[in-house]
Amino acid sequence: MTSRELLVSKIENGTVIDHIPSGQGLRVVNIMGSNMVKGQTAVVLINIPSKHMGTKDIVKINDREIAVREINKIALTAQTATLNIIRNWEVSEKRKITIPRIFEGVVKCPNSNCITNTDEHIITKFIVEKRKPLSTRCHYCERPFAREEINSFIT
Amino acid sequence: MKGKILSTLFFEPSTRTKLSFTSAMQRLGGQTLEFGDSESTSIVKGENLTDTIKTVGKYCDIITIRHPNEGAARYASEITDKPVLNSGDGANQHPTQTLLDLYAIRKLKGGISELNISLLGDLKHARVIKSLAYALSMFGARLTLISPPGLEIGKQFIDELKYNFKSSIDETNNLQKGIKKADVLYVCRIQKERFEDSYEAERLQREFRVTAETLTNVKEDLVILHSLPKVSEIAHEIDESKYSKYFDQVFYGIPVRMAILNMVLQ
After folding, report:
1. b/e for B45-72, b at 16 or more Cβ within 10 A?
2. Is B172 a catalytic residue?
3. Catalytic residue selected from B18, B66, B124, B189
4. I need a labelling partner for A98 at 20 to 30 A (CA). Which of A41, A66, B87, B108 fits?
5. Chain centroid to CA A101
């Protein structure tokens, strides 16, 4: 196998998430994997050589197109990632992941005393104040959080 | 304001905020509906905040709420069509206290911009301090933050103020040094309950206590404020001194809260 060949074959239909920072591939597949149904499979490639990034991770999931909610979660974990929607063996849509200005329902507030961490069934909401480096603020308790602080609170 | 009703929902203890809101509303000609001790309400049956707010909102024209969780007031404002005033949410904000503090400073010193204002005490946990520091920075005051080691306001917060308002902010753990040039000294309690070691808490309370001796080298027209209740952080002898204005400050809560109620309901 040459260095240009992929370790796994192409998929007929599904999603390929490329340009994931090295080390974040498993986290991305965990995000997608929580909604997997019978027949769908996921593959994660780790430390693949990359011209622009040095090394990267790639996730391929067949028979599944990514949902918006999942895109927002992945955006928090892998800001450099690109999405490829595959249909009939061809890349049908390709786009870079961008962090939305507001994201709802994808991160639990790290502040244990925030009202959203009580039994009130409140959907969390975070405002992105800066994208690089990522800086967010909880809409309710108003505390600021950097990427490292919210990464382990992605739901 | 005749015929209008203010509901006061206090899930935490309060003397001044609750009474001054009640007084303000009554002075405007309106009425108040007190939520009462939560032990005498359906909270004790397990009713949540969401249902409580939706219910109370049907009985009044405006709500003021104090709650132990940060974000509670904002959440309440989203689930009722009645205006909601935040009377303190956890360690987050206490905005009407800040407004009356600003008013007090302006009345007592003729302005806010360019004043040297020292904030003293447990700056990390006191919600009035963060609200006040933010507002004073907006008005161009020069801040000196005095606290025991470990109870500082936090670098991230200071950086935010400097970035947003180009604020002049100094920090010190030395009380005498921190108040030497102050025009206003705002004191807050060192919260003993935050310390595992009560001896250490008491030691720090003594070290950062405002006494006659502490004030020997301060400006003649220094004004001392405190959001109250005070415990031991200001010596009793200071209450009768020329510097103490915290009981005047208490009064200013009335006109400020009257103005807020009037502005929101008209």
Report:
1. eeeebbebbeebbeebbbbbbbbebbbb
2. no
3. B66
4. A41
5. 16
